[in-house]
Amino acid sequence: xxxxxxxxxxxxxxxxxxxxxxxxxxxxxxxxxxxxxxxxxxxxxxxxxxxxxxxxxxxxxxxxxxxxxxxxxxxxxxxxxxxxxxxxxxxxxxxxxxxxxxxxxxxxxxxxxxxxxxxxxxxxxxxxxxxxxxxxxxxxxxxxxxxxxxxxxxxx
Length: 156
Description:
Layout lengths: L2 H30 L2 H31 L6 H9 L3 H47 L5 E3 L5 E3 L10
Antiparallel strand pairs: 1-2
Helix pairs in contact: 1-2, 1-4
């Protein structure tokens, strides 16, 4: 058993635990509607993703140094023949990865739902502005646009 492999997997487990904690915080903020507080988490998530990537590369290098191909089947076959404590460590890694994936997916759904609500609210506001006497609004470029394109009476 390679010490480098155990160390790499322990680092990956630690990074996943931090990533999950960050995802759970993001989820709490999304559910509470505090979208502004989510933005600072992006930098933390980005750093954790880089850390996870590095740990994953170290794990792959350690597997390769043991002659194990970098494929799910090859790694699982090798792990199945390893010591019980290593199998437990590996299982922990897989479970944490699944948890992170599930929470991240849920957060994506929460963000998409929030975006849909915002788009619907914007559509309602734009339609309401179009029903007012002055149907001027501002486009995405910041310039004034008119809703109907009609001209006031008396102009030719």
